[in-house]
Amino acid sequence: MLCLLALLPVACVSGADLKAALAERDLGRRSKLALDNAEQVLKAVRETYQKGDNQALGPLIKELDESVTLAWDSLESTGKNPRKSPKWFKQAEIETRNLLKKVDSLQHDMGFEDRPMLDQAKARLQKVHDDLLVGLMEGKR
Fold this sequence. Notes:
By secondary structure, the protein is an all-alpha fold.
């Protein structure tokens, strides 16, 4: 019984909020919901890693990557110029920066041999953050 209660937060996070984000029609809000989901998944990744369940990390890290990709794709689909309509773009830039700090912190807390698990998701997150920053500073071309 205790084991089931321990897994409950991970089970609730996995996939549920990403489906809600996909159902959102407003692309700016969809991006926000996807990044909120990414933050929740990152918390679940940390908790799962601390419990020593490395096999359960794969799907969680994949969902983290999918959430960040959904946020970026949603903002790109708006067709808006980030310099002229910065609301959702700036919010996403701030959230991706915070997520990058948290991923970096988690990687430093992980054992040396486990750190590469987050490399791909971290690289994608860094690219999305950089693209958002360039869009806000230079605008669309």
